[in-house]
Amino acid sequence: MSKTEILVQRVKQMIDSHGYAHSDRLPCEREMCQTLGVTRNQLRRALAELEGQGLIWRHVGRGTFLGARPVLNLEDVTYLRDRVKPAQVVSVRFTIEPELARLAAIYGKKADHEEIQHCADRCRNAPDWRGYEAWDNKLHHAIARASQNQLHLYYFETLNVVRRSVVWGQPRKTIKPADGYSSFHEHDVIVQAILTHDADLAAHSMMDHLRSVYSRILPSMNLDIPKEYA
């Protein structure tokens, strides 16, 4: 069992011993680090694992909560889902996410870099498509958090909830991504650009990645590429 897996079990035991109920806010990271005797980076890896399992969710500026992330405004999400087309979701991702990658390369901190790399590694080692998609989502969310811009992050989270509510209808012919799945390499390029603070490469690599993904999902769609990336 790895150090992270051991710490995950310790965090679970801490939660159980304190009798937290669903949606309760957990202690702040600093307090949990002191209680568990670990560094913030070590704790964040354990929390990322728990979040990937749907046992906790984290909200920037508010804290860590027990349970899966709720849809706070379900009626709004349903309203948008029923009125937007997949192409419109793609267009907004093309507008927002390359800029988030650029900002992550400029403002991302060491802990952000470690979480981004961790998520990319978990994508590559996912046992099935569901696991891959969960860690892919966490990777993009980690990049958004690394922008250090809360307003950008709120926009991203709103887009992400709507995107996940849209039915894309992409069939899966295998249990998990193949070893040579193109997104793995694309993720590596994005991550390396962010870790080396190459903002332009991070933005263009994210654009290339999104374009690659949607050329597979929506091959007949005329992708609306922003001029700076065309």
TrEMBL record:
The keyword Ubl conjugation is assigned to this record: no
InterPro entries registered for this protein in UniProt: GntR_C (IPR011711), TF_FadR/GntR_C (IPR008920), Tscrpt_reg_HTH_GntR (IPR000524), WH-like_DNA-bd_sf (IPR036388), WH_DNA-bd_sf (IPR036390)
GO molecular function: DNA binding; DNA-binding transcription factor activity
Keyword Transcription regulation part of the UniProt annotation: yes
Pfam families, A to Z: FCD (PF07729), GntR (PF00392)
SUPFAM superfamilies: GntR ligand-binding domain-like, Winged helix' DNA-binding domain
Ranges for domain HTH gntR-type: 1-69
PROSITE patterns the record matches: HTH_GNTR
Keyword set, alphabetical order: DNA-binding, Transcription, Transcription regulation
Protein name as annotated: HTH gntR-type domain-containing protein
